[in-house]
Amino acid sequence: MLAALDLAGRQYCDWRGLIGRMFPVTIRDFGHWFKGPSITGDLMRKWERLGGVLTQVREFLRIQNVPEESAHAHEMKVLGMAIELATTVDQVNPEGCYFLELLARRLSLLQHAYESCSKGGAPDFTCADVWLGCEGMEQGQASQMSEQKVYVAKEMERQASITKEVRKAKEEQRLASEREE
Predict the structure, then answer these.
(1) What is the SS3 assignment for 11?
(2) Going by C-beta distance under 8 Å and a sequence separation of 6 or more, which residues neighbour residue 104?
(3) Long-range contacts formed by 56-65: CB under 8 A, 24+ apart
(4) Model's pTM, two decimal places?
């Protein structure tokens, strides 16, 4: 299938076009990786009616009063962007992709956890393992990513030193202005 292009000639397919291009695929060995039915196709159709996954995520965060700076809000936006890029830019057929199934399950789990509590309350993740239905996940993968950890540590150190220098410069300006008075 040829990639759709937008008016500027960039590879892009809007949500209406995406839904029109979707076709059902039987995922071989789906039960080996996931328990329960595939949810990606149904979610894609829902997101299309709402204006896309990013629109749905923003609206959800607003309605549920999820703090903008929270880790869950950030994760929902990142998952939404990953799904958006995979489907509208890379133009992957969402029905039949294991990785999109996992992303869709995680995003829907986060939203379910917030819908299961009072607005502003602590989300309920008691059903997380069953919701994801993915027994193949191993614990401790982050500890094996030493190059990434080194990069992140250096970048955080660099940002902290910049913040420290800015704070120091502001303090010096404040002291200088006090001396002038």
Answers:
(1) strand
(2) 39, 40, 43, 83, 94
(3) 56/80, 57/107, 60/111, 60/114, 64/111, 64/114, 64/115, 64/119, 65/119, 65/120
(4) 0.66
